[in-house]
Each structure stands twice: as structure tokens, then as C-alpha cells.
Amino acid sequence: MFNTVIEMQKQKKYIIQGSIFLGFFLVIYFLLDRLNGGYALMVENYGVYLVIINILINIFMSFASAFMMNLSTALVKLTGKEGKGTFLSSIAVFFGMLTYGCTPCVIAFFATIGITLSIAVLPLAGLPYKLISVLIIVLGFIWLRYEINHVKCKIPTKDENEAA
């Protein structure tokens, strides 16, 4: 079933949809870096390598999240049920907003919903938290792939129809 879903990704619809999702996630992740002080401040405090690592992680997370959204959309089209692994990419984005986003914004957000606490300055411009987001996205992909391969009401593929 996973191969069928991968083949669907070559269709024009999924290429356009994936490009839109990719752009959306890139904007979110780069905006979070900007709100966290920007790349100039990162270079000044930690060096250019941290900026390169952050940009590469942003690109990876954006591609992975967009790909998972496309896989989930294809799964819905085939089975009528959405994969639950995709929600982890949304959790990773929300986690990013609350951890390596703009610290004053996070404090204001928590105060609005009744949580009052002070957030310590994040080490390495939030890189450890970004790595946790990567882990969440990877776990979401593994979960989604498992769901695709173990669909409850599986639709037979061409190979299965020929074998029957």
C-alpha cells in the first residue's frame, strides 16, 4: 500500500499540493527563527555553523511535514480515513512556536491562558528544541508509514487483483 501512495505523489495534484505545504512550512520555520532574534544574532553569538544547521533543519522539517501531509491526503483518497501520524507534524510546529519562537510571545501566550511562568533563555538559539521537533516529525512519519501499510479496509492494488 505504501508503494501505491508513493506513486500517487507523482500526480500533478500532489506536486502542487506538496509545493504549497512546503512553502507554508518554510515560512513558519523561518519566521520562528526570525522571531527568535534572526540569523545575524545567531552568527554574532554562535557562529555561522549554527545558522547553516538551523537552515538545513528548517528545510528538512518543511519537506518532511509537507511529504507527510501529501501521504495522508493520498491515504484519505484511497481509504476514506486520514492517517493519525500526520498530527505529529502539527504538534512539532506548535512545539516550535512555544519553545524556539519569540520568547516574549510565548510568555504572553501562556499568561493569556492562565499559565504564569518565566522562560529561561534557550541555549544555542533553540537548537535542542528544534532537534526535538525533528524527532517528533520522524516519529510521525514512522507512525504514518505503519498506518499506510496496515490499513484496516485496504483497497486492493493492481498486483493483488492480478494474483486473485
Structural description of this entry:
- This protein is mostly helical.
- It has one domain.
- 76% of the residues lie in helices and 0% in strands.
- It has eight helices and no strands.
- The longest helix is centred in the middle third of the chain and has 32 residues, at 48-79.
- The chain is elongated.
- The two termini are 16 Å apart.
**Helical stretch count?**
8
Instruction: Give the strand tally.
Output: 0
Q: Describe the main β-sheet briefly.
A: none
Cα shape: elongated
**Helix content range:** over 70%
- Mean of residue pLDDT values: 76
Structural class: mainly alpha
H/E series, N to C? Answer: HHHHHHHH
Radius of gyration: 19 Å
Question: Strands, helices and their partners?
Answer:
Blueprint: H1 2-8, H2 12-35, H3 38-46, H4 48-79, H5 87-99, H6 103-112, H7 127-149, H8 158-163
Helix pairs in contact: 2-4, 3-4, 4-7, 5-7
Supply database-style keywords.
single chain, 164 residues, mainly alpha, 8 helices, 76% helix, elongated
